[in-house]
Amino acid sequence: MPYTKRPDGREMDELRPIKAEVGVVPNADGSALFAHGDTLAIAAVYGPKPLHPAHLQKADRGLIRANYNMLPFSVTERARPGPSRRSKEISMVTANALSSVVDLKRFPGTVIDVEILILQANASTRCAGINAAAMALAHAGIVMNEMVSSVSIGKIDDKIVADITKKEEDWTEGEGATDIPFTLTSNTKEITHLQLDGKISTSRMMESYDAAVKACEKIYEYQKRALKGEKIDENVSLKKEE
Amino acid sequence: MTEKTNKKQRKIVIPGEIIVSAEDHLPGDFTRKEDGNIIANRYGLVDDSGRIIRIIPISGAFEPRRGNTVIGRVEDITFNGWVIHIGGPYTAFLPLAECPRYIDRKAINEFATIGDVLNLKIWGIKKGSIDLTLKSRGLGKLEGGRVIKINSHKVPRVIGKEGSMINLIKNSTNTEITVGQNGFIWIKGDFEGEKRAEEAINLVVKEATSTGLTEKIEEFLGGKVEKITEEVKE
Amino acid sequence: MNLPNINKKRIESLLSQDKRLDERKLFDYRDIIIETGISGNAEGSARVRIGKTEVIVGVKLGTQTPYTDHEDEGTMITGMEFSPMCGERYEGGPPKINAIETARVVDRGIRESGFIDWKKLCIKEGETVWSVAIDIYCVNDDGNVLDASSIGAVAALMMTRFPVYDEKEEKVKFGEWTNDPLPLTEKVPFAMTIYKVGDKLLADPNREEEDAAKARVTLAISKPGKEYMINSMQKGELDTINGEDLKKILEESEKIYDKIFPELDKQIKSLQK
User: Fold this and answer.
1) CB contact under 8 A, A69 and C83
2) Do B146 and C5 make contact, defined as CB atoms within 8 angstroms?
3) Over the stretch A155-165, which tens digit does the pLDDT of each residue have?
4) Total of domains in chain B
5) pTM, rounded to two decimals
6) Range of the domain at B125
7) What torsion do the CA atoms of B61, B65, B68, B73 make, to the nearest 10 degrees?
8) Which of A8, A62, A180, C156 has the highest Cβ tally under 10 A?
9) Do the chains contact at B59 and A139, CB–CB below 8 Å?
10) Both B36 and B16 in a single domain?
11) Residues C192-238: pLDDT tens digits?
């Protein structure tokens, strides 16, 4: 069966319904929620604060320490609680994705902790986590050049699509599925995070970047609106997946 | 309509957002000039009342500055001073030598022990640590009352123009209040007064960005002050 | 900020007049708000807010071989984490002892009450039984996370639906659900914790009151008939409680049960529909 339309009826470049909100964790210096459809992340930021042990401190800059935590019940088959090799890698790429827009020189020797919980997973969890985390950092008053927005671009069969679901990720027919999560800065469209899992020819790779630019511009608008005080919940019911 | 309530609501901007063309404006606090525009470096309210555009922070951790008066809690005692929690990015230390009177090293925890709170001044920020002093008027250990915590960026609103807001709260609730620039606030009075003062402060924090704040607080305190006096009569 | 000494004194001096800073009576709870359906991939889930305290609980079902001493009964595991998200005092890393204690106290209350009909969780005696995994996450700690966790666990269990089980293949089809609820009984166990601050007892402390407490006693109580049954109990923290305290705790626990839990039970049941 060739991939001619998306299982949930979306246009190829259409995002899932978005939820976005800030201030969801009262104790934190900054916090936010971001959901792509039923992939839902919350993020909380504490800091900048003293970093212990001291040998981890950088003399000329602060650090961002991210922790991506996919809750055991966020997936259909229970995930073991606690860090895995996968979650450690995602934590690292998340910290990197965020660090490049943050003025880390402002408080040398300190740490900004970014805690991300994935409550519900249907692919693109790292992207939802990064989107929530970027909002939480801004909400925490961290000095940043600009925002970052994250989206997973897919090549499903021979189509380039935005914000892929688990069902699309698992597509095996035709050319199969390729998952390409991008994180881009909001103004300059610099890539702060890029991964790829699957197969795509070098000649088509730039198409995925162009799709990411388009999708991230939309995501940025949601982040902006939420930071300005709006509670966004596009609770439109999509066509049931067949 | 009074001048105050007529004042324009300030706009919230987010990092990277274009605030205004740089043609007629200059970048101030937490903004930069880029490609002919003034751009925000931080989430907050835009102050565009003058030629210089700046952002007034509304959130985030305490950012210590030399000369700040802060309230802190003793976390640890070393052989030559106290480790103090004042919030913010760095650990703070009060050396024994920065006490206004002589304190015997052996009796260091008699002056201030773990859990005690002090009103202090930041006299130095070295790489990675903050030095505190008690050698200035009005500083010292805080006895009685209690400490509450608000966001440090809301402190200017709680104090108000020339202390107008905090004086209003103090006078209406019959309390002593010391506001640390780190957002730790000490309130001392009778139980009712402390509670009213805390509620009023929290209301200032909640409504910090809204117009007619003073009127709102006056109204809030006005209503309840009556109630308290009634209770006293009984 | 950890609790300043003067704040502790203020709390204690108010308590000596049976007063609290937020004007609650000693055994009053803050508003409790329960939401369900927090995670669509969980078999059951709930969010509980008590004041500003918030926990999220999810239930997942799976299958396993039964324990040899209970070959026809399902199994249960309860995990709990204070996410570093929930307050400035929390650090990352594996669950600390307070999280483990919370999980175990909640677990025992559910296990011992007979809330779950274990025998109905048997698929094939001696070979395959259902396993129930309860995972509790604190998102914001403003005191009394323990009671919130217990309420959340009960709510999530009450919302739980079985996933589809393929009898031929003898395995669970994860991601496909039946309409069959978990086999639960009327013995609903709710945990409540009474704290001793100074020499006063109180319920549902906020963060400062909890910091000021020197001892606490948690009781998980169910009320299958007229009697209040204690299904698990735990004295926590360093200080002792005396016989008088225990008597008072038992008296108050009955009142708290009647005042709060039938209402919560109703709230959760209305969410089931």
Assistant:
1) yes
2) no
3) 999 999 999 99
4) 3
5) 0.94
6) 69-141
7) 50
8) C156
9) yes
10) yes
11) 999 999 999 999 999 999 999 999 999 999 998 889 999 999 999 99
